[in-house]
């Protein structure tokens, strides 16, 4: 670590936090689906990418960006719900056939990606920044408004989701269905409608993540590929069923994967390596993650 | 008029037919037991009635045909099912389990009813904010039953409430359920391996064999029937 400068280190940290906010947003979508169906949705990133194209398209047609984002969230939610009803649900109950359903989400990953290329082509589209291109100067540190905005939006998302899961009848039903769909149905919960809402909610979150990710990375069909991998690392670290875990995990993964390669030269050629090492370590040492709940049940 | 009238019911899992033209009735407020050996189709019968399985035939509940209705719709109509092996939602707290039980209700008394059930079962009250999965088998069974009652059912389907419970606990569960159904005039369709206990609890019973009803009668008649006694009651009563 020759030539270590604190201000430089902090600047990398800020970039890391900005990226981490994106991983956390996608991670929240993954947690929502995990908590309502008990499975990992590999198509989460691609559905987010698709919704982001909808946001871009609407903005391109002349809608102001915030309005386009809200419309994109609605469109994403509908898209997520349709995908669930048409492609996921007919395959079977994720609790009895988890492998089949996970494989379907991997198929969706490819299908949605190809669909986006068919509609919008393979070139990069320009997505403007929701919070503009300006930055705040704090001493030597330059913090982009877009990053501050991403963290703020992330905070709002967590609070809203927390309230939905902990304080509403819908959230209670989602948790019940995730834990025991059969007993939930026998208690009067319309299980498939609840799952539909869960997928829609996750897809709407994806639209937000994509809209924050697209300006710096260029909007194309592979927008979310790497982000999804980092998000998996994030929720593995934080715990698959924990909203707070997704946020903490996302931010940690964002900072670690940004800062480490700057100082450890061989990592700069393999930027995903720290994320994979993190996934491996967590699964070995604390498989339920930092904030995830352990399986407690007496049978 | 019967509360539940099942006629010629056939159901199964995929190509495997388990029920083959089963017919039974349950009157309002009546406790009825289905006896039968392992694999006779007792659990399948309850699952078909509560809409968990596709079935053919006819099923009339409370004057309306309900064949093919989804489980959550049937709960709203008044059929509550406590599945085998305790139907608690282990990751939710006791209180949340009860709230889920009242999910289909549209009246505003759900919260007051949760308080009431926590008083009826004091042990649930003590563990209100505890995860259901951390409780003992007997406590979970009580919770599953209380949760079913939260939907204000007209008919309670009980699948082997004694499964995995100590004899004393089983006795207590049956006593409590007996009091509760009498108090609320709820009909019960019970499936139970412990036939002695079940025939003390129920007024009437059916004997199920290979998916068909092969015998029926009042509890006293069934207790007195030698062939049934040998097959299902295990020796002397």
Topology of helices and strands:
The complex is a heterodimer of chains A (299) and B (237).
Chain A: H1 6-37, H2 44-60, H3 65-88, H4 98-120, E1 135-138, E2 141-144, H5 145-167, H6 169-179, H7 181-186, H8 191-217, H9 225-238, H10 243-263, H11 273-285
Antiparallel strand pairs in A: 1-2
Chain B: E1 2-13, E2 16-27, E3 31-36, H1 42-49, E4 55-61, E5 64-65, H2 71-77, E6 79-82, H3 94-101, H4 110-120, H5 122-126, H6 137-150, E7 155-159, H7 167-184, E8 187-191, H8 195-201, E9 204-209, E10 212-218, H9 219-224, H10 226-233
Parallel strand pairs in B: 3-8, 3-9, 6-7, 7-8
Antiparallel strand pairs in B: 1-2, 1-4, 4-5, 9-10
What is the subunit organization of this protein? heterodimer
Beta-strand content of chain A: under 5%
Instruction: State the share of residues found in helices of chain B, binned by percent.
Output: 25-40%
SSE order of chain A, one letter for each helix or strand: HHHHEEHHHHHHH
What is the overall pLDDT average of chain A? 91
Straight-line distance between termini of chain B: 33 Å
Counting H and I runs of at least 4 residues, what is the number of helices of chain A? Answer: 11
Q: What are the low-pLDDT stretches of chain B, counting only 5+ consecutive residues below 50? A: none
What characterizes the major β-sheet of chain A?
A: 2 strands, antiparallel
Main sheet specs of chain B: 6 strands, mixed
Largest interface comes to:
A-B, 23 and 38 residues
Stretches with pLDDT under 50, minimum 5 residues of chain A: none
**What's the Cα radius of gyration of chain A?**
19 Å
Using the CA coordinates, give the radius of gyration of chain B.
17 Å
Q: Tell me the structural class of chain A.
A: mainly alpha
Estimate percent helicity of chain A. Answer: over 70%
């Amino acid at each position: 670590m020759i030539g270590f400068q604190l201000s430089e280190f902090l600047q990398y940290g800020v970039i890391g936090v900005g990226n981490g906010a994106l991983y956390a947003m996608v991670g929240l979508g993954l947690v929502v689906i995990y908590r309502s169906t008990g499975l990992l949705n590999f198509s989460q990133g691609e559905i987010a990418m698709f919704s982001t194209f909808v946001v871009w398209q609407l903005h391109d047609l002349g809608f102001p960006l915030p309005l386009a984002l809200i419309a994109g969230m609605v469109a994403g939610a509908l898209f997520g719900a349709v995908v669930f009803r048409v492609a996921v649900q007919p395959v079977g109950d994720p609790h009895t056939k988890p492998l089949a359903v996970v494989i379907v989400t991997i198929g969706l990953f490819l299908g949605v990606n190809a669909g986006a290329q068919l509609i919008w082509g393979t070139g990069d589209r320009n997505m403007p920044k929701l919070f503009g291109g300006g930055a705040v100067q704090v001493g030597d540190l330059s913090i982009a408004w877009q990053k501050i905005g991403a963290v703020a939006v992330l905070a709002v998302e967590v609070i809203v989701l927390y309230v939905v899961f902990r304080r509403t009848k819908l959230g209670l039903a989602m948790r019940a269905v995730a834990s025991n769909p059969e007993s939930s149905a026998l208690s009067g919960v319309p299980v498939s409608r609840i799952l539909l809402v869960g997928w829609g909610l996750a897809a709407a979150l994806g639209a937000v993540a994509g809209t924050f990710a697209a300006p710096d990375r260029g909007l194309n069909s592979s927008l979310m590929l790497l982000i999804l991998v980092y998000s998996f690392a994030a929720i593995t670290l934080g715990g698959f069923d924990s909203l707070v875990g997704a946020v903490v995990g996302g931010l940690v993964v964002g900072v670690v994967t940004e800062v480490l390669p700057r100082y450890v030269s061989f990592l700069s050629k393999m930027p995903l390596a720290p994320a994979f090492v993190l996934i491996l370590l967590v699964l070995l040492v604390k498989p339920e993650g930092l904030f995830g709940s352990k399986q407690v049940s007496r049978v | 008029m019967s509360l539940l009238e099942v006629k010629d019911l056939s159901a199964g899992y995929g190509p495997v037919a388990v029920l083959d033209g089963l017919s039974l009735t349950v009157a309002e407020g009546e406790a009825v037991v289905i006896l039968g050996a392992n694999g006779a189709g007792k659990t399948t019968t309850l699952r078909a009635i509560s809409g968990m399985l596709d079935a053919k035939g006819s099923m009339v509940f409370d004057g309306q045909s309900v064949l093919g209705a989804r489980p959550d719709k049937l709960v709203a109509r008044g059929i509550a099912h406590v599945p085998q092996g305790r139907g608690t939602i282990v990751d939710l707290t006791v209180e949340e389990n009860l709230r889920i039980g009242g999910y289909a209700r549209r009246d505003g008394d759900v919260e007051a009813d949760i308080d009431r059930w926590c008083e009826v079962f004091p042990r649930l009250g003590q563990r209100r904010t505890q995860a259901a999965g951390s409780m003992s088998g007997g406590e979970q069974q009580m919770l599953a039953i209380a949760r079913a009652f939260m939907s204000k059912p007209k008919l309670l389907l009980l699948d082997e409430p004694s499964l995995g419970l100590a004899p004393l606990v089983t006795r207590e569960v049956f006593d409590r359920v007996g009091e509760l159904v009498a108090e609320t005039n709820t009909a019960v369709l019970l499936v139970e391996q412990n036939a002695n206990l079940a025939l003390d609890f129920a007024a009437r019973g059916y004997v199920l064999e290979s998916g068909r009803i092969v015998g029926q009668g009042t509890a006293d008649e069934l207790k007195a029937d030698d062939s049934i006694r040998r097959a299902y009651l295990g020796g002397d009563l």
